[in-house]
Queue: 3 jobs
Job 1
Amino acid sequence: MCAQFKRGWMTMKFRPSIWASRLTEGQSVLAAAGTAAIMAVVLHLLLVDAPGAMFSGLSYLSTWAGTAMAITWGVGLSVLPLLYAFGRAHPKLRQPLRRPGKTPVSGMRGFWGLLSAYWTSERWAEAWSLTIAVFAITTLISKSSVWAATASADFLNSIVSFHTPTEGTDPVAVLMMAVAAFGGIYLARYGAIGFRHFVSASLHRKARGWTQAQFSSAMLGRNHIAMNLMSNRDAAPGAVGRMPDNVDQRVDECTNNMFGGIIGLAMGVWGSVTSIYFVSSAIISRSVEVPFLERWFAAAGAAATDAFGATVGAALTFSPGEYGSALLVAVVIALYVPLGTFCAWLLGRVLERQTLERQARDGTWRGELNEMLGRSGQLAISGGQRVQEQTNGKLYRGIDEVWHRMNITQAGFMMFTNSYNFLSKRLVSYLPALPGYLSGALTFRAYSATSELAAELIEDCSWFIQVMPAIATLKANAVRLSEVAEAIEVASDQTEFYSQTGVHKFRHLSQDPHFGLTLKNVALHHRGKDSAPFLTVPQINIRPGHWAYVRGQNGCGKSSLMKAIAGLWPYGTGDIVLPTGAKMFFAGQDPDLPTRLTLKELVTYPDFPSRFSDIQVAAALAEVGLGKFIANLDDDLHHGKPWNNVFSGGQRQRLVLARIILQKPDVLLLDEACAALDPLATLEFHRLLAENLPKAIVISIMHTPEPPVAPGGKAYYDKILYIEDGIADIHALGHAAPAVDQIAAE
């Protein structure tokens, strides 16, 4: 590790414009450690609670004991970034603190499970070292509020006493020193706030990155979870099996906003707790006796003595004494803060409901825009712009309606918080210490300091009011994200998932490869527990090397049968038996061409490109008639356009043929895989399949009433799978076929 750090520092070019972006992991650790040591010295100064904090702190630090303590703080905080780096590298510190569930998001189905998932994951050492650093800096900032209030009072007092200075002091020097201390303290405080933002933003970034990776992994896991999430979204809200809407928006925006909210709230809670402790201690240390309180409590004790006797009266007699002004601060806060908190809570409940509704409508509108852009070519051909514009406008009017209501709520909340804060800082905070100042027990400097501290304490105790909108947003984001986690958990078990809304009793089995593919007592249903089967397959078998051609009328279930063989049809019963270890390839009607892949990645899809050499990919492209694109294997754009907008329909199907040639499946399902090819190209398509897949099981749906035949007269297909009157049966080629009006795939 040391050698890595050394190499990193030696290669660093200190150009300010790029320096920060070129930090290596090791350099970041050392920079954080050095910064932590510097911050430790400041922390030590802030923990020195004595009158004239700046001067007392510097004097104390000049001693050997103070220096030793500052070094101790520096070493202690420097351990945090080192722990962070060690936790990322050491295998024993990369073990999760919770047991794994059925899916990567199994533990995120509840509010607290979702919030704590990153901190109990395999990256817990990284998470907690950053969290501890954030809390340490927040403690530092909280303590600095006392120092800042004292410096502010010193500054005001130096102005007030400028013309009546204490004997033996230079008023100009006192004023300049007060200005320097006042400015320096605030600069240091805001510097610490900036550094905390960097650390907390890093924690936010890493937590969100880890969480979205878990959701991505879960949705792309086994049992086609992503496809299952897109089903049954038309059911009524709260209906059994209903899937959440706008999954993309939930995973994208909600993960970002949720972790930003929870980290900010955690810093706020801890900052308020520590600040309340530090500020309360400072207020108590400055508290003085308040004469009218003494009189009131004495009168109350006398009344208790008269009413209950001397013994009870003595027990009930209480005198605040020197803690009188501190007691007044506590009374004011006890009356003022709960009232404001209750009002904020009422407004926050309304805001939370509106936030949930706004997020749902935003997601629907954005999803429609994405879908519109994805079919922009078809939209231009059909001329449906006016209808699409009407749809977009209708969806946005829904956003505008809830946005209008949110604006009213937020405006009311802003008026309330601004009024509350103004009264807190300019009136309420100056009332508790006023009797002590009027009685002469407090100097103006002490009165100013106590009032400033009271304002800080009211602000800290009012933390809930300030963050109510953030809490409402956090809860809304967590609810929407946990709904996705719950849906993923349900969808991960296909049998249980589809049994909620229909019949799902398929058995996917395997057998000796010699016996090929077998379907036995298969019945396909639509959604609904009482739905009747629309297609039944008593029993069919196709051995390796045999090709079957599917015939049937429109809507008879040809494509549904293909999906059932591939394990993609949700509702039905029966046994689907595949050869053991068989590799299946399903070439559907619309080829899957992701937009952010290079040409080589598209050709080798769904495998990784590293499995095939450039020569293999180039040979496959040349073989299927796409050789002119060989020079662009590493390009993800062609003439500025993604590949899915470059290829014509026929070229797309040739690209799929190249995939088949590379991957050489044992079972090949073709659902109109030649629909965009002319007759000669269709013959060439089948010739290449026969040459490259001599032992494969091929099942194909085509437009043509008869299967293609090789130039020599030999038929590519030796079996025909008839579907008539809801029953599928298979015969050898040449068997009399039932009359079919039109042949097409579903």
Note: The first strand starts at residue 504 and ends at 511.
Job 2
Amino acid sequence: MNKRKGCLLYKYEKEVDTGSPSDVQILDSPTNPKKRKLLCAPDDSEVLMEDDDGPITQADLERWFVHDWNKGTPIKVSVDECINNFLMSGLSTKDMPVTKANLIDVLCDYIMAIQDNMTLQMTWVRSFNPFKIEISVKDLQNILRINLDMTLKCFDMAVRLLANKDSRMSKGEKIKDIKHYMDMHFWRMVGFGKLPKYHEDPTTEELAKTLDCWPSMNYYITGCKYVLMPWKLNECYTLFVIDHVGQTLFYRVNTNYLVLQAMVMWGNGRRMEFVRAKILRINFLIDLLSYEDNPCRYAIPANIQQRLINISTKE
């Protein structure tokens, strides 16, 4: 349900006719008591409709479709409904144009409204290099849930997106001090905190691969100013920063979202300023769905892809 208020922008203005009093015809009430009947559209207390349970007021409609929606009341959305769902169509208004924030809110609300089990298990984002990662619709929903931490595979995908973004910079934009981003793959391989019987030590070659240049970039690890290595211990995350002179620093935070922000800002010569977790989660979701090298992008419904295009063109 569109939350914005204003005058509806009709597609064909000439078809809107105010009419005259003589055009009005008074109709008798329908004989079927189970049929809803539209009365009028006045203030919050006046009755708009009637059904088997009694009269329905404007306040009732607002409570059901606005307040309940704001509380995150889920609705079931199937794959077939992904094309022409009213959430994704949006309403243009004359006095309040659609903003980028409006488009993002509608996109997030729509994804959170999906309840169909088959749809939730579908893979919408996949990456193979340097190892396979699959992100399902359920994973995307969990990214938007502020009370849940990011899963390890989502964190690995976020680091991969950082490396991919750096590789697409022009020569003039590339940072002077190259950073090597490491994901949680190294932490999993080492098996820190696990009993030997539950973990097999990696080979030297396997450990060395974690320091290889990212597939989309061209550098040697010895030429990097910083090596950024995330770590996890007792549900607490730490970012180890190793520079070329042998110094090792660490930055400890309570969520891996903050670790990602630190990895982005480290070495830019400015004071680190962290954004709200909600904003970071939304931006990460949009980056995932907009990932150009995603072989599963055609599994994403066409209306969501169009919404992403609209978001990217908005200032």
Note: Confidence is low (pLDDT under 50) at residues 1-19, 23-42, 64-86.
Job 3
Amino acid sequence: MEAFKINRLKEIIRAVSDLMNTLGVAVVSLGVLWGLFGFARG
């Protein structure tokens, strides 16, 4: 039973870190696009 909990926790942590990676990439991409847009306008 303990092992099951630990595995579940590991799965959740992995899913969260994947989500964080995806969000990080999205935020960086938006930042770059925003920077290019501002540079092109200014």
Note: The mean pLDDT is 95.
